[in-house]
Amino acid sequence: MSNLPVIVDRAGLWDAEALSDVAAATFPLACPADATPDDIQIFVSDVLSSERFGEYLNDPERVVLKARADDEIVGYAMLVLRDPQDPAVAEAVDLHPAVELSKMYVLPGHHGTGVSTALMRTCLRWVRAEGYPGVWLGVNRENLRAQRFYTRHGFEVVGARTFVVGRQLHHDHVMRLIFRP
Ligand SMILES: CC(C)(COP(=O)(O)OP(=O)(O)OC[C@H]1O[C@@H](n2cnc3c(N)ncnc32)[C@H](O)[C@@H]1OP(=O)(O)O)[C@@H](O)C(=O)NCCC(=O)NCCS
User: Fold this and answer.
1) Are 137 and 104 in contact (CB under 8 A)?
2) Is the peptide bond before 60 cis (omega within 30 degrees of 0)?
3) Which of 79, 124, 149, when mutated, tests ligand 1's pocket best, judged by the most ligand atoms within 8 Å of its CB?
4) Which atom of ligand 1 is the closest one to the Cα of 138?
5) Does the predicted TM-score (pTM) go above 0.70?
6) Ligand 1 center to residue 144 CA distance, Å?
7) What is the pLDDT of residues 59-102, one digit of tens each?
């Protein structure tokens, strides 16, 4: 386990490949036990390729933050600055304007070291500074570690959604944090 100092800042286009590598290594950790390797691979190829990260990094509706330790990217987070597409999620989230913490992933060797907390604090600081009333996210119902992490940072469950991974439907909690004045 590493306890190196961590630096969190905005990722740039040049980070697309390294972010894709971290994403491919960490996405399976967020999946339920019955997720198949094939379905995970479909998701990784379709959604987490370096080409897709290039698109995310160019998208004015997304903010990608990277966490570096010893000059390596060891985690990343992605904010999506638009209303939820699913009307039921939009109703449960009830944020105007809405922002989603769409990804929060840290390499396993850096779990429990403060990297995730540094990423989360930077996300929340950014969202608050931009004037959003809060932030929402989806997390798999079986991903108890992530749920505890989010709860510790002030999120609570406000609804549910489904999430497609390959040919499988996954079941998520929808969690929301509202900033106190
Ligand atoms: C989610 C993630 C960012 C959290 O960061 P972290 O550094 O692991 O966070 P912590 O070490 O503070 O652990 C969070 C909590 O889970 C607990 N925990 C640790 N392992 C656990 C496990 N196997 N099951 C349940 N809880 C666990 C910790 O004790 C801690 O509880 P506390 O807040 O009551 O002290 C990180 O684990 C990660 O990247 N996981 C893989 C990807 C992922 O699941 N991303 C989220 C997608 S929605």
Assistant:
1) yes
2) no
3) 149
4) 48
5) yes
6) 7
7) 999 999 999 998 899 999 999 999 999 999 999 999 999 999 99
